[in-house]
């Protein structure tokens, strides 16, 4: 059950409910418990049951260990918890597309700006498929705060985000667990690995290879890129490194700042009729897609319109892309000039920081995607485009033609994806005096091959033996001890935006009740997770809130002494305090059957 959070529940403020923690959640559920009863199996006296879904150990050992920790603690307090393991693609399909889960444990891709929370939680997206609101949350106060942070001036935005984070900490559509350090190893055949974050486009540009090196061989533990490089798929990838190499965007992230990339530049106009802003964007002239067609303002306008509705108004109902939803929703209008194909004006329903984030989506070639759309429409009378599910956002058959620094060369399923340098890319134009050497890094190697390797340890061994140059996938913490002390290999550490989390399906009871979500969250020992799963605080930091440090208010830091919004573990050393847990669940409408050792619906 989702409530409008502008009002207290049954006369008790929700913050006091969370702060009460193990001391007891002393409020009545009133009529709500009638909705909670018997939801799982239909009988009032049934044991409380929950399913947890995650990925297999071979896919991400840390994720499944966290899930098993939660499963064990739920069972210890009398809940019938069942862990289901699915391949990463199946896991994402269950959670993001079908919404077929009670709880899941995974890693959220997040983003460099807290506006990622807009697409993650706004009620507008509760019924859509994709990374937008997979939790199904519909809370009016969170919607209001999400909208307010979008329009806030940069100087005031952190203060605007603070109450949003407080509301999220109370409602708990998900529980952030920890943020990992991103570890990779690389060979000494290249210099410049530490120039940029190795999960971004720029991490592969500006490198200096040895004289005889023509290919960069990067290892991935995930085989999905070898099967599908559709930039719109929600189940193919969580992060966009390959997409960013194939497709240019108007802007790119450089040292926490969005700088012009495909765009030569933009000028801001804050004197708009509403609270938003607008920018006049000038594209680089003479840029082409990989098939030789020019990149123009029409392609940019098409991209944003197409991401807003991938049926391109051909279906009865719009079919938004399951990715980049928050970016596109920040845009109000795009105006192009028939007499100037390299200039466009973009109006935003957002302040400048959020507007700049909207400039980082991949620019798609209009001629390729319109042709694909026309081929798929067929008989208009029978055409439908189920959001997030129809072929144009899931197919591996669409030509991966962009304008990025590398172009598609070949792929072999479960073996490799190979990209080759696009020699007509604008960063290679030595006569372009608008290029900034600190921003516009060049593709310096002829090929990049992403080779599938099954695990972190074997990937380290291949780099150490000279069989590869980089572990593109993040190394799991347990494998770090296997990194040899060798002059030919070096470890690189990057901060992460991603975070491990527990996700709740608020569409289903009992997870539709925020008090139940709070109670379950108190059965995860984050400090135990850091010690036993990640082995050291240097490898991951426990979290109370999902944004990065610069956006986290002091009282929401994990080591804060203020517990009002921080859910502490109800136990010690990874083991729950069963008595206190029973008291907590009984306070919110469940009863413990001592004879059977089960928590039951009251």
Write the layout of secondary structure elements.
Layout: H1 14-20, H2 33-36, E1 49-54, H3 61-76, E2 80-85, H4 88-97, E3 103-108, H5 116-121, H6 140-151, H7 154-171, E4 174-180, E5 182-187, E6 190-191, E7 208-209, E8 215-220, H8 241-246, E9 251-254, E10 257-260, E11 263-269, E12 277-283, H9 297-308, H10 325-329, E13 331-337, E14 340-348, H11 352-357, H12 366-377, H13 391-394, E15 406-412, E16 416-421, E17 447-452, H14 456-464, E18 470-471, E19 489-494, E20 499-504, H15 514-521, H16 526-532, E21 540-542, E22 571-572, E23 575-576, H17 578-587, E24 590-593, E25 598-601
Parallel strand pairs: 1-2, 1-3, 8-17, 8-18
Antiparallel strand pairs: 3-20, 4-20, 4-21, 5-19, 6-7, 9-10, 11-12, 12-14, 13-14, 15-16, 16-17, 22-23, 24-25
CATH C-level class of one domain: Alpha Beta
Which value, in Å, is the CA radius of gyration?
A: 25 Å
Low-pLDDT runs: 1-12, 15-43
Helix percentage range: 25-40%
Mean pLDDT across all amino acids: 89
- Per the CATH scheme, the topology name of one domain is Dipeptide-binding Protein, domain 3
Number of strands: 25
| Tally of contiguous helical segments | 17
GO molecular function: peptide transmembrane transporter activity
Family: Belongs to the bacterial solute-binding protein 5 family.
Organism: Natronorubrum texcoconense
Keywords: Signal, Transport
Properties at a glance:
single chain; 602 residues; alpha+beta; Dipeptide-binding Protein, domain 3; six-stranded mixed beta sheet; 17 helices; 25 strands; globular; disordered N terminus
């Amino acid at each position: 059950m989702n409530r409008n959070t502008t009002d207290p529940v049954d006369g008790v403020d929700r913050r006091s409910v969370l702060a009460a923690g193990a001391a007891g959640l002393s409020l009545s559920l009133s009529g709500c418990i009638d909705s909670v009863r018997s939801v799982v199996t239909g009988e009032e006296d049934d044991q409380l049951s929950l399913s947890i879904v995650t990925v297999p150990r071979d896919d991400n050992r840390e994720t499944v260990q966290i899930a098993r920790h939660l499963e064990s603690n739920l069972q210890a307090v009398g809940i019938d918890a069942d862990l289901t393991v699915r391949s990463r693609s199946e896991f994402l399909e269950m959670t993001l597309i079908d919404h077929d889960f009670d709880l899941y444990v995974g890693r959220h891709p997040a983003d460099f700006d807290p506006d990622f929370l807009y697409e993650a939680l706004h009620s507008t997206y509760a019924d859509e498929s994709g990374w937008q609101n997979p939790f199904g949350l519909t809370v009016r106060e969170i919607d209001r705060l999400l909208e307010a942070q979008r329009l806030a001036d940069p100087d005031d935005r952190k203060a605007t985000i603070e109450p949003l984070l407080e509301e999220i900490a109370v409602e708990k559509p998900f529980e952030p667990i920890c943020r990992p350090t991103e570890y990779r190893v690389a060979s000494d055949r290249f210099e410049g690995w530490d120039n940029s974050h190795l999960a971004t486009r720029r991490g592969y540009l500006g490198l200096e290879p040895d004289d005889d090196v023509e290919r960069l061989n990067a290892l991935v533990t995930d085989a999905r890129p070898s099967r599908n490089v559709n930039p719109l798929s929600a189940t193919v990838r969580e992060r966009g490194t390959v997409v960013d190499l194939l497709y240019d965007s108007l802007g790119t992230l450089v040292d926490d700042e969005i700088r012009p990339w495909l765009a030569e530049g933009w000028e801001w106009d804050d004197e708009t009729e509403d609270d938003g802003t607008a920018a006049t964007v000038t594209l680089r002239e003479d840029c082409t897609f990989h098939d030789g067609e020019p990149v123009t303002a029409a392609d940019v306008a098409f991209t944003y319109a197409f991401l807003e509705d991938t049926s391109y108004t051909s279906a009865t109902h719009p079919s938004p892309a399951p990715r980049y939803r928050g970016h596109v929703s920040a845009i109000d209008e795009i105006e192009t000039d028939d007499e100037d194909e390299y200039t466009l004006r973009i109006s935003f329903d957002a302040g400048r920081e959020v507007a700049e984030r909207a400039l980082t989506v991949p620019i798609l070639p209009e001629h390729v995607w319109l042709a694909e759309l026309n081929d798929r429409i067929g008989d208009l009378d029978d055409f439908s485009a189920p959001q997030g599910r129809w072929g144009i956002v899931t197919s591996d058959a669409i030509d991966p033609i962009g304008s990025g620094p590398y172009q598609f060369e070949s792929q072999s399923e479960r073996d490799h994806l190979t990209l080759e340098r696009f020699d007509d890319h604008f960063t290679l134009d030595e006569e372009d005096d608008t290029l900034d050497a600190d921003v516009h890094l060049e593709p310096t190697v002829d090929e990049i091959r992403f080779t599938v390797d099954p695990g972190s340890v074997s990937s380290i061994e291949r780099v150490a033996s000279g069989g590869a140059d980089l572990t593109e996938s993040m190394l799991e913490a347990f494998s770090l001890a296997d990194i040899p002390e060798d002059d030919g290999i070096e470890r690189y550490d990057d901060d992460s935006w991603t975070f491990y989390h527990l996700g709740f399906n608020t569409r289903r009871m009992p997870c539709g009740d925020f008090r139940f979500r709070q109670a379950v969250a108190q059965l995860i020992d984050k400090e135990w997770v850091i010690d036993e799963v990640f082995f050291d605080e240097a490898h991951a930091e426990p979290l109370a809130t999902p944004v990065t440090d610069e956006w986290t208010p002091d009282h929401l830091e994990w080591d804060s002494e203020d517990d009002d919004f921080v859910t502490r573990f109800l136990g010690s050393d990874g083991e729950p305090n069963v008595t206190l847990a029973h008291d907590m669940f009984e306070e919110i409408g469940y009863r413990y059957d001592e004879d059977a050792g089960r928590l039951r619906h009251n």
